[in-house]
């Protein structure tokens, strides 16, 4: 039997799965290495597969990698990835050597869009956007059945849509007023501190943030759930920013289906989904798409990677020349 290897490379965790052409057969979730050189991650993937899935290794037909970005799409290298201390992570070339088979590498949200198209909610549609609301904000876009790539592989960088051109809020990329500056999980504690000092809000969340510089988006959402005023303001801003971003996506790409995923969204669906979606049609010039959370949960990146391996998109084959 033929198998495919799916790899979802994240800043904190790396998921690796052996798959049939339709589904995940066996998977493992590992901590992503934080030290080493540009080949460390590829070596780690190879060693993990040898250790965990030795009986499948001879029968792997192709490898798909859904990776954190930004990517040098032609070379299949992650360049200065957010939250990982590597200047470069070489994927395409070393993995091709290790596995001796075809390897395709794409940004994780791009892969997820392809996964939704092949295995998920996107099956009946030609025009799909997968949006991840996670540590960062990103998307994968399929228009008229074509996976969008762009001249350097960045046709989907929706997190850097300017949603407030008067904003002082700086994004991780250096720009101001970008969607990700408001809604990237990594930026949420910073947004809370800024709002607190600007509006002179006293709140338990603010006290907590001052004492815990390592606080995360999870903490902010927890305080919001408890009714903390600052926590609620931050989440309200998150919702407004995401509504503006999503309206821009719909107006730009005209999708039939918009799938929502990403850790920050999936962990807080109950308080985010309705608020983000209701009334959105007022800001949209085209007809509204179907909007749904991904049904794959944490495995969406793996299904994306499987789709790259088992049914490679022509657009990516052309760029990566395999
Ligand atoms: Zn930006």
Please characterize this protein's 3D structure:
39% of the residues lie in helices and 21% in strands. By secondary structure, it is an alpha/beta fold. It has 2 domains: 3-114 and 299-320, Nucleotidyltransferase, domain 5, CATH 3.30.420; 124-295, ATPase, nucleotide binding domain (Nucleotidyltransferase, domain 5). It has a 5-stranded mixed β-sheet. Strand 6 (77-79) and strand 7 form a beta hairpin. Helix 5 (188-199) packs across helix 8. The structure holds zinc ion (ZN). Zinc ion is lined by residues 160, 171, 173, 175, 178, 180.
Main sheet summary: 5 strands, mixed
Shape: globular
Beta content comes to: 15-25%
Helical segment count: 12
Mean pLDDT: 95
Instruction: Enumerate the spans where pLDDT stays under 50 for 5 or more consecutive residues.
Output: none
Counted up, domains total 2
Report helical residue fraction. Answer: 25-40%
- Order of secondary-structure elements: EEEHEEEEHEHEEEHHHHHEHHEHH
CATH homologous superfamily title of the largest domain: ATPase, nucleotide binding domain
Number of strands: 13
How widely separated are the two ends? 23 Å
């Amino acid at each position: 039997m033929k198998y495919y290897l799916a790899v979802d490379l994240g800043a904190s965790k790396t998921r690796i799965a052996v798959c049939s052409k339709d589904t995940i057969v066996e998977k493992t979730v590992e901590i992503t290495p934080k030290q080493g050189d540009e080949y460390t991650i590829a070596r780690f993937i190879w060693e993990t597969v040898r250790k965990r899935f030795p009986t499948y290794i001879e029968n792997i037909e192709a490898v798909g990698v859904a990776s954190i970005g930004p990517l040098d799409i032609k070379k299949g290298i992650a360049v200065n990835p957010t939250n990982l201390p590597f200047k470069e992570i070489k994927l395409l070339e070393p993995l091709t050597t290790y596995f001796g088979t075809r390897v395709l590498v794409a940004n994780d949200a791009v892969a997820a869009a392809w996964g939704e198209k092949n295995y998920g909610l996107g099956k009946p549609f030609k025009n799909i956007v997968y949006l991840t609301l996670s540590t960062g904000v990103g998307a994968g876009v399929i228009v008229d059945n074509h996976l969008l790539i762009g001249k350097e592989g960045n046709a989907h960088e929706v997190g850097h849509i300017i949603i407030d051109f008067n904003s002082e809020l700086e994004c991780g990329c250096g720009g101001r007023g970008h969607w990700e500056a408001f809604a990237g999980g990594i930026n949420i504690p910073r947004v809370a501190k800024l709002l607190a000092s600007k509006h002179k809000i006293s709140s338990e969340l603010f006290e907590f943030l001052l004492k815990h510089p390592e606080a995360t988006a999870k903490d902010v959402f927890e305080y919001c759930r408890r009714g903390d005023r600052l926590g609620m303001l931050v989440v309200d801003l998150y919702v407004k920013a995401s509504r503006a971003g999503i309206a821009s996506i719909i107006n730009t790409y005209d999708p039939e289906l918009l799938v929502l995923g990403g850790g920050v969204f999936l962990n807080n669906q109950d308080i985010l989904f309705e608020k983000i979606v209701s009334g959105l049609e007022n800001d949209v010039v085209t007809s509204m798409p179907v909007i749904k959370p991904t049904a794959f949960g944490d495995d969406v990146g793996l299904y994306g990677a499987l789709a790259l391996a088992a049914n490679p998109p022509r657009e990516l084959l052309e760029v990566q020349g395999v």
